Amino acid sequence: MNPLILVVEDNEDILFNIKLLLESNNYQVITAKNGKDAIDVLSTLKKNPEIILSDIMMPELDGYDFFKTISEDPRWGTIPFLFLTAKASPNDIRFGKMLGVDDYITKPFKEQDLLAVISGKLARKKKIYSINKEIEEMVSSLSKDEMQSISEEDKDQVILVSVFWDDHLGPTVRDCFPREGSFPFSINQVGQQLFQATVSIYGHELITKAEGMLLHIDNIKKNGYILFDSYPEPSTRSNKREYMLGVIAPKISYFNSLKIKEILKEASKQIKERNPLDLAVYREKILNLL
After folding, report:
1. Regarding predicted confidence, which is higher, 194 or 280?
2. 167-172-178 Cα angle (round to 5)
3. Where are the beta strands (DSSP E) in the chain?
């Protein structure tokens, strides 16, 4: 079945032309004239659209509020969302990206550019779905022994580290526990390595909200679970302060990582609220579940 796309646009001529373009390229298209109508349409669908294209300046409910509404709803929060708008100033684009939209296409646009972006988003979504299926199959096949956590002796080797991005210095370790010097490798170097590894996969622009990743660190033969996040910071080039909280341990299972993510999100909230962050406290919480 051809991919389904929801197009939200209050200009009837533009809406008609986009619908015609997409349908002529083998997409199914449903439309709405503003954010409020779009939510009504989504509520009636038996299957979610593959992508949402939305204008920003619309009556009833504009694109920003429409995106905020669906991103907070578990039924629709994972649908790729693209702004298609004449609001093309750097501040407009930056604000859209800070909200967490998947892409920002400015009017007037070339038809082939729009089709290329849609094709790319669909391919990425398909890849993510495939990876998630592999993880589900892997997890379901695990034996009880394979799901065991680390030993009590190995818990001494568990490290919690915070790394912040600096526009001049790059990734910089701000704090770690236990402290640097307690291990036969440089925590500073490993922290930078983890930061750079994830940026190479996601890019800085996509690190705008809490996202986690489980990695194997070959050079020290450890596992690492890292949570990226950011908060608004006008003094930086990107207008946001990017940072990472990472756990380094002899072994971190997939099941462990799900629980570790929730603990690191608690710690990340403290950073965003500018509260003191005691890594020892959160490390202890992680040790209790390993």
Report:
1. 280
2. 165
3. 4-8, 28-32, 51-54, 81-85, 103-106, 159-166, 170-177, 211-217, 222-232, 240-249
CATH class of the region 148-289: alpha beta
CA 143, 145, 149, 154 dihedral sign is: negative
The topology (CATH level 3) of 4-130 is Rossmann fold (3.40.50)
Q: Compute the average pLDDT of residues 277-289.
A: 91
Provide the pLDDT for residue 145.
Answer: 44
63 and 35 in contact (C-beta within 8 Å)? yes
Give mean pLDDT, residues 69-90: 80
The residue type found at 240 is K
Kindly list the distances between the CA atom of residue 137 and the CA atoms of 125, 142, 143, 146, 161, in Å, as whole numbers in the listed order. Answer: 18, 9, 12, 14, 31
Structure pTM? Answer: 0.49
CB 217 within 8 A of CB 231: no
pLDDT the model gives residue 98:
63
> What does the domain layout of the chain look like in residue ranges?
4-130, 148-289
